[in-house]
Amino acid sequence: MDKSSPDTKASNEIAAIAGELLEKLSFSEAKVEAQVKDETVTLEINVEGEAGILIGYHGEILEAFQLILSLIAYRRQGSWQKIQVNINDYLGQRREQLEAMASKIAEEVSQTKKSQVLPYLSANERRMVHEFLSGSDQVSSESIGEGRQRRLVISPK
């Protein structure tokens, strides 16, 4: 598998592919902007109307959209690109929710000195929580389990 760093041409092509997919899904008014940062093509997409249809429960549809977009881009460009799609700032809002939840649970764990297992989170969401808690002096986090059974555990230090 060839994995090359995305350039402006590649990111613009990925944005165009996203626009084509959105149009086929009847989101013809969607605005798509591409940025390249840390070897990741980030697509900021703003849609009118029911964005939840494109996001799904806890971002499951959004993750599927990213995967389909990655596969199409690979077929057209011949190399894998890391693609992140953010629809109507869902990722920013979800990060805030996860950080609030992690902060509350971390406080409980540091007071009770008992580990807590979080409900299912996607790999990307677990990464957000790990990053958020990485600077804590009082708790640590680790992922345990496999596949859909993988959970994040917050433990006292």
UniProtKB/TrEMBL annotation:
One of its GO terms (molecular function) is RNA binding. Residues 92-157 form the R3H domain. Gene3D superfamilies: 3.30.300.20, R3H-like domain (3.30.1370.50). PROSITE patterns: R3H. InterPro entries: Jag_KH, KH_dom-like_a/b, KhpB, R3H_dom, R3H_dom_sf, R3H_KhpB. It comes from the Bacteria. Pfam families: KH_KhpA-B, R3H. This is R3H domain-containing protein.
